[in-house]
Amino acid sequence: MGFVLATIGIDALAFGIIVPIVPTLVMELSAQAAAGASIWTGALLGVFSAMQFLCAPLLGALSDRFGRRPVLLVSLAGICVNNLVLAFAPTLGWLFVGRLVAGATAANFAAATAAIADVSTPEQRGRRFGLVGAMFGLGFVVGPALGGWLGGYGVRVPFLVASGLAGVNFLYGLVFVPETLRAENRRAFSWKQANPLSNLALVAHDRAYARLVLAWCCTWFALGTLQSSFVLANDLRLGWGTQENGFALAAVGAGSALVQGVLIGRVMKRLGERRAALVGYAMSGVAYVAFAFAYSPWILAVGIALQSLAAISGPAVQSIVSGMAGPDRQGSAQGALSSFQGLTAIVAPVLAGWVFGVFAAPDAAVHFPGAPFLMAAVAYGVAVWAVQGVRAPGAAREPG
Questions:
Q1: How far is residue 194's CA from residue 118's CA, in Å, rounded to a whole number?
Q2: Does the first or last residue of the chain, that is N or C, have fewer Cβ atoms within 10 Å of its Cβ?
């Protein structure tokens, strides 16, 4: 558990640590101002997500065949190499090479969550998947702050630190961490299962799984909206700068990490997996409505508090998916979630950015900078509908 959580935490930290300095590096390598560089920055995000979509089912299927440990070790080595490439990238093209490698290795989430399922009882899964969310939250809180501080010593220093962290974790896993997948639970590798498009067939033939995937995508659609529009909307409506927005985003991550790391076990025990997911998605919908109409800081604070409490939904859905999959299919099941997550992450920021541009323009017929958040609130309504129709094995453990 410690190694897997550290791996996930390093993934999140490595992503967050470069957020404050990537635009600066892009401007340096492209010799363009902020407006032109923003196009390249968006392209880098799209490349990362596209590679994650393509590689997540491959790594999940490989982990079902060869075990979780070798897949996780290879991915950590890739993270280490990727950040070294970024640290010494002489041109914009090399920056794209680094993000290609980063997206492919970030797909280790499938093998990591499958390893957790290997060593967890059904009663433990929800709480332990909550710890996964907590590590993501901590990484996204600490990463940008650390990246901004290290960037003061040089725009490439954060990449070196991220590479070093991945290297240390690789060595620890190589020496101390055992395999979690038993030999009798392994299955032959199939390119059909490793094909990201095969997940479309899986969704088409399994109604319950299709609903869970839809709910999962709604979560990441809303996150893409938050990433692309939160800072700009607060700048227009509240006159906030980098510091205020940084504190607000840190509060979102810290609150989610606290709920998923401390409260999720009690909530899952009391409500059960399905009900916890329903409550979480409903609260997220209300939170994003607050973000949409946050014309004063206290409304934004209410939204942040609600979104933090709503962080129970992700681990609940993961636990239901894990319960539906057999012991030999945990990697593929979690890989499919990661694959659709990556696909959503390609579309969400682009669509949200376009909606923001339409409604935030000075000459807009309806001036409403919060429009992307209202769109995300509707997505969470869809997630509630999707989970409402699921009758999974985990539902049998729900009280009442």
A1: 20
A2: C
Confidence band of 397 (pLDDT split at 50, 70, 90): very low
What's the Rg (C-alpha) of the chain?
20
Q: Over 90: is that where the pLDDT of 363 sits? A: no
- Report how far residue 354's alpha carbon sits from residue 376's, in angstroms, rounded to the nearest whole number: 14
Determine contact, residues 173/73, Cβ cutoff 8 Å.
yes
Q: What is the pTM of this model?
A: 0.67
pLDDT tens sequence across 295-332:
999 999 999 999 988 888 888 887 887 777 666 566 56
Q: What 3-state DSSP class applies to 225? A: helix
**The residue to which tokens 């060869």 are assigned:** 66
Would residue 31 be called left, alpha or beta, if left means φ above 0 and alpha means ψ between -120 and 50 degrees?
left
How far from the centroid of its chain's Cα atoms is residue 109's Cα? Answer: 9
Q: What are the Cα distances from residue 22, in Å, to 41, 92, 331?
A: 7, 11, 32
CB 1 within 8 A of CB 119: yes
- The closest of 270, 292, 276 to 392, measured between CA atoms, is 276
Determine the average pLDDT of the residues in 116-136. 75
| CB of 112 closer than 8 Å to CB of 8 | yes
In whole angstroms, how far apart are CA 211 and each of 202, 225, 311? 12, 21, 19
The percent of residues above 90 in pLDDT, for the chain, comes to 11
Under a CB-based contact definition with an 8 Å cutoff, are residues 222 and 284 in contact? Answer: yes
Instruction: Say whether pLDDT at 16 is over 60.
Output: yes
What pLDDT does 385 receive? 94
Give which of 118, 108, 99, 110 is closest to 49, Cα–Cα.
99
DSSP 36-76: HHHHHHHHHHHHHHHHHHHHHHHHHHHHHHH-HHHHHHHHH
Nearest CA to 105 out of 69, 79, 81, 84 is that of 79
Element housing 384 (H / E)? helix 371-388
> CA 261, 263, 264: angle at the middle one, nearest 5?
75
Nearest-angstrom CA–CA distance, 108 and 364: 43
CA-CA-CA-CA torsion sign (114, 58, 379, 244): positive
Give the torsion through C-alpha atoms of 58, 60, 65, 68, to 10 deg: 130
Nearest-angstrom CA–CA distance, 341 and 106? 12
Residue given tokens 């363009």 in the structure block: 32
